[in-house]
Write a structure and sequence with these properties.
three-stranded mixed beta sheet; Aspartate Aminotransferase, domain 2; Aspartate Aminotransferase, domain 1; 42% helix
């Protein structure tokens, strides 16, 4: 009763005031519109994986076939990974209760950092509490006023936020347009310090950056390179080091970032580079210095996942083959599927309203996919994520269900024109 009275008093105090900070919250109507139409696609509640296949999850009393997870190698439910996490929690406790700078560094952190550095051919690495924090902290700490950040148009929000926090001047070049990147480099002064920021695999569209062209231009103009390998680690490259390894330029990239919440079956992220860069970030990256360190259970899960990445390369072979088949089959049925050779298979849907209807229709049939609504990507996308646990029968079921649900709801998925390279100023 007291809480209700306080809420009423607060409403009377602020109602009608032009300077009320909460006015924008009351006017934030888009989610309510989706909910009123019965197609709100976010914050679905899932249960456990107990009794499920690795690519299934409970949702209430139904098993849902998951085609919306970034668990590309199907390791989050692997018994070896779960056992490693549980053993670490018993040995080290549930948390470190401090930052890495002070009491939060365990021998486990140091061991896994060394392994990550080796994976991506760098001298040193540092672990952050989240992937978002990794990008945000690194870009904002590395650059100063007068420097330049040249960023691909389609980079992840965490990189955008890091660039916004940085005092450097940020310039966006058209997606995968090396001619435009070169013009941006030409516009920088001869003595300007430049960092080119790119993603190995673009998280929404699923295509790869032209890292060969990026590295070549960086060398020619004396710039440094930063590559976010969040969606490439584990699935691309001879050893699973990501898109830069896949394209043969891993040793030429100056800074590699990766996350644990995709192929490495945990949570967190890392940045790897030469020792002076990592030592500088350890002492100056504020989100790292002033955040509690990653719990031992999460770090141990990463360590075990790295073992499996090295010992079972067939997992990445399988997931890439599954995604390739899905992409081919969908195109054969006339769907507009963006180019790529990664586990991410995006179908273009013209209307965001239709996209949400399609996702709800698929979920009613027991299949979960991700709706990506502009401006999160250049197009409205039904983003499908393949994993090493998906079988041909799973793919067949998905394709048949998409066709049937789209026809039932009269949602057009064919004949949609897109720009082939997805460039956008």
């Amino acid at each position: 009763m007291l809480n209700n009275r306080l809420a009423a008093d607060s409403k009377r105090h602020t109602e009608g005031r032009a300077n009320d900070l909460f006015e924008k919250c009351r006017n934030f109507a888009r989610p309510a519109e989706y909910k009123a139409a019965g197609i709100y696609p976010y914050f679905e509640v899932f249960g456990s994986h107990e009794g499920c296949e690795p690519c299934e999850v409970w949702m209430g009393n139904r098993k849902i076939l998951m085609f919306g997870s970034n668990d590309y190698l199907a390791l989050t439910t692997d018994a070896r990974v779960k056992d490693a996490a549980a053993a670490a929690a018993r040995k080290y406790g549930s948390g470190c209760s401090g930052s890495r700078l002070l009491n939060g560094t365990l021998d486990l952190h140091v061991e896994v950092e060394a392994r990550l550095a080796t994976l991506v051919h760098k001298e040193a690495a540092m672990i952050y509490a989240t992937g978002f924090q990794s990008n945000y902290a690194a870009l904002s700490a590395l650059t100063e006023k007068g420097d330049y950040l040249l960023c691909d148009h389609n980079i992840h929000a965490s990189l955008v936020e890091g660039a916004l926090r940085s005092p450097a001047r940020t310039v966006r070049f058209r997606h995968n347009d090396m001619s435009h990147l070169e013009r941006c480099l030409d516009n920088c002064g001869e003595n300007d310090k430049v960092l080119i920021v790119n993603e190995g695999v673009f998280s929404m569209e699923g295509d790869m950056a032209d890292l060969v062209g990026t590295v070549e231009l960086a060398k020619r103009y004396g710039a440094r390179t930063y590559v976010d390998e969040a969606h490439g680690i584990g699935v691309l490259g001879r050893t699973g080091a990501g898109a830069a390894e896949h394209q043969g330029v891993l040793d030429d990239v100056d800074i590699v970032m990766g996350t644990f919440s995709k192929s490495l079956a945990s949570v967190g992220g890392f940045v790897a580079s030469c020792e002076p860069v990592i030592d500088y970030l350890r002492h100056t990256a504020r989100p790292f210095v002033f955040s509690a360190s990653l719990p031992a259970a999460s770090v141990a899960a990463v360590g075990k996942a790295l073992d499996i990445v090295q010992e079972e390369p067939e997992r990445r072979t399988r997931v890439l083959a599954t995604a390739s088949r899905l992409r081919r089959e969908l195109r054969g049925r006339g769907f507009t599927v963006l180019d790529g050779e990664t586990p991410i298979v995006p179908i273009v849907v013209e209307s965001d309203f239709d996209l949400c209807r399609l996702c709800r229709g698929l979920l009613a049939e027991g299949i979960y996919t991700n709706p990506v609504i502009k401006p999160a990507a250049v197009y409205n996308l039904l983003r499908i994520s393949c994993t090493a646990a998906h079988t041909d029968s799973h793919v067949d079921r998905l394709i048949e269900t998409i066709q049937r649900v789209a026809a039932k709801l009269d949602i057009p998925l064919t004949g949609i024109a897109v720009r082939h390279t997805m460039t956008q100023a």
